[in-house]
Amino acid sequence: MDPLSAVIAVLSPHAAVSKPISGRGDWGVRYPAYGKPGFAIVLEGGCWLALQGRAPVRLERGDFVLLPATPAFEMSSRVGMACVASEPSPRPLRHGDPDGPPDFRMLGGGFQIERANAALMQSLLPEMIHIRSAEADTTGLSRVIGLIMDETAAEERPGGEMILQRLMEVMLIEALRHGSPEPGIRAGLLGGMRDAAVAKALRAIHADVRVRWTVADLAHIAGMSRSAFAARFADIVGCGPIEYLSQWRIALAKDSLARGGTPLDRLADEIGYESASAFSTAFRRHVGCPPGAFARACGPASESRAIGRDML
Questions:
Q1: How far apart are CA 221 and CA 224, in angstroms?
Q2: Residue 84 dihedral angles phi and psi, to the nearest 5°
Q3: Is the pLDDT of residue 230 over 90?
Q4: Beta carbons within 8 Å of 215's beta carbon, 6+ residues apart
């Protein structure tokens, strides 16, 4: 499995919500940080989106945006508009003049990912992924989001939860395949997969996580010197190659522990640790608790799949 597909499989997106958003004339809204993934695609007109601490970005018709962990943001019809404080809502929204046909329309929504690896999405993906329709074909994403809206609007169709999860996976893969971070935003795994040398190392890690990889091994695969590779990997992905390997092993462990049923010694072997003791030590260092305590905390009684608030 390639790195992007592997990460999305572990994140297991679910509990999608979506709604139409429209506006007319001058308007501006401000939302607090949400912390969960959000997405939007512009159907008509355009608007400005400004993440907290970032310069405004223009969204045009057909543009798609994915926020892996939605921060506080403002959205407006033009730069400099006074923004009204708002709270996320699952209901359709109309901004600005309530009368007359809208001059701006978008579909916005949000979803949840497995709690066990929520931090993984934030650490490996850029703060904002923006696909410009002028640079890439977003027709497929538009169709997928339309299907997500249809499914979320339906009343408990048989198999609906699984269909939604698959649609969310397709949307994420499409977004990561074609998207790019805004200038000045760390590229993370997305950038790593677009760098020929770093991508070779990432594919090797994900192809066999049990291998006791060294920086020298991965540098050889990348066709670079050890020091140049280590610096390049850290600059693009945001952490060193061995730290990335450790993060991915712990992510796999969290996923397995949350599901239950795998003995620690077997799990340790499956993800590349010499013993259950070595695995437990590494897990405690990364997570702050032993594997057993984590597994109990992630049991069915503690897992909530309630539908979250919308992004916009």
A1: 8
A2: -90, 130
A3: yes
A4: 226, 229, 230, 240, 241, 242
Could you tell me if 45 and 103 are in contact, meaning their C-beta atoms sit under 8 angstroms apart?
yes
Q: CA torsion, points 190, 305, 152, 28, in degrees to nearest 10?
A: -60
Side-chain-facing half-sphere of 56: CA atoms under 13 Å: 17
- CA 87 vs CA 29, 30, 104, 170, 275: distances in Å: 9, 8, 20, 28, 48
CA distance 241 to 223: 15
**DSSP string over the chain:** --HHHHHHHHH--EEEEEEEEEEESS-EEEE----S-EEEEEEESEEEEEETTS--EEEETT-EEEETT--SEEEESSTT---EE----SS-EEEE--SS--SEEEEEEEEE--GGGHHHHHHHS-S-EEE-TTTS--HHHHHHHHHHHHHHHSSS-TTHHHHHHHHHHHHHHHHHHH-EEPTTS--HHHHHHHSHHHHHHHHHHHH-TTS---HHHHHHHHTS-HHHHHHHHHHHHSS-HHHHHHHHHHHHHHHHHHH----HHHHHHHTT-SSHHHHHHHHHHHHSS-HHHHHHHTSTTT----------
Q: Report yes or no: 25 and 39 within 8 Å, Cβ to Cβ.
A: no
Between the alpha carbon of residue 300 and those of residues 3, 10, 289, the distances in Å are 28, 17, 19
- Give the C-alpha distances (Å, rounded to integers) separating 254 from 119, 202, 213, 295: 11, 20, 21, 8
pLDDT at 201: 96
Tens-place pLDDT, residues 40-65: 999 999 999 999 989 999 999 999 99
Under 8 Å CB-to-CB from 303, ≥6 apart: which residues? 115, 258
Domains (range + CATH), the chain: 3-181 (2.60.120.280), 195-297 (1.10.10.60)
Global pTM?
0.75
